[in-house]
Amino acid sequence: MLSLPKPHSDFPFQTHIPAVLPSPFSHVDSSPGIIKDLSDLEKLAVLGHGNGGIVYKVYHTKNRSFYALKVLRLNENGIGILEAEILKRVNSPYIVRCHAVFDNDNCSEGDIGFVMEYMEGGSLHDVLQEHHRLPEEVISVLAKRVLEGLNYLHGMHIVHRDIKPSNLLVNDKGEVKIADFGVSHVVEGKFEVSDSNAGTCAYMSPERIDPDRWGGENADEFAGDVWATGVVMLECFLGYFPLIGPGQRPDWATLMCAICFGEKLEMPEKASPEFQNFVRRCLEKNWRKRATVLELLHHPFVGRNCCCSSTGLGDYVLRGQVH
Ligand SMILES: Nc1ncnc2c1ncn2[C@@H]1O[C@H](COP(=O)(O)OP(=O)(O)OP(=O)(O)O)[C@@H](O)[C@H]1O
Question: Secretion signal: which residues (predicted)?
Fold first, then answer.
């Protein structure tokens, strides 16, 4: 059994919750009997470790369902508080759902726990580990779901800032959803500078890595999520991190050179013209010329298999479920 305290709606730490976020508790389940007490959750296994936290597979003994419980250690920077605020407000089929947030109301070194929808298929990273690469038809559906999720988030002024395979989770139907708002940012003004070091550097856009050279000071933060989406989709096609060759260790210097100074990206010959164009529009180094999420949602590559029965990664997770 878990030792976190009862659910609490007022966080003990003062943090700046941006005014642009809509009012809280618009979706955290509040109906009786859903998830009221952490002691109703039985820890079954560790699903993964992230930055400062552990994710467990848990079983709710009263409603007899599985969930994922992410436990973060709160620190003096209030890490985890903005993530909780964001999770409490988002409600979209393209975002991993948060059913409850629990915090420790009486100590400065407490934990914060997020009870999340359990994604049976693990992450896209797990899928790629097992299947190495994905066909374009699947990537097309995947891209559509990620872009729909980003469109929703950006509409709420939320920049994800850490789109990467391990933050795209898959359920047993093969549907992909965006997870992990640990380094997300809420944009209040049109252009705003935030901590550009947060996130995973391999998927960072040129303007975040080298703001001087790529106009990062004035950059539209949402464009960084588009860049990362392009990197992930190309990685799915190739089966390895695309900005450096297969088998190379992506150290910081190599990455910085590839992202900020690299020659025009060579597209895989086998890729369709639509996919090549889609990736080029995402991986435009100059953020002013890069496609927007809305433009990409109308791109001929995106969702081109929507009329058929494809549910995205269904065939991939069902054959080799990781959890
Ligand atoms: N809702 C969930 N259902 C199933 N597995 C999950 C869920 N949430 C997270 N996981 C698993 O736990 C792992 C760790 O998740 P977490 O969000 O803490 O960190 P991360 O994204 O892997 O790393 P980082 O924090 O460094 O970005 C994920 O990669 C995934 O395998």
Answer: none
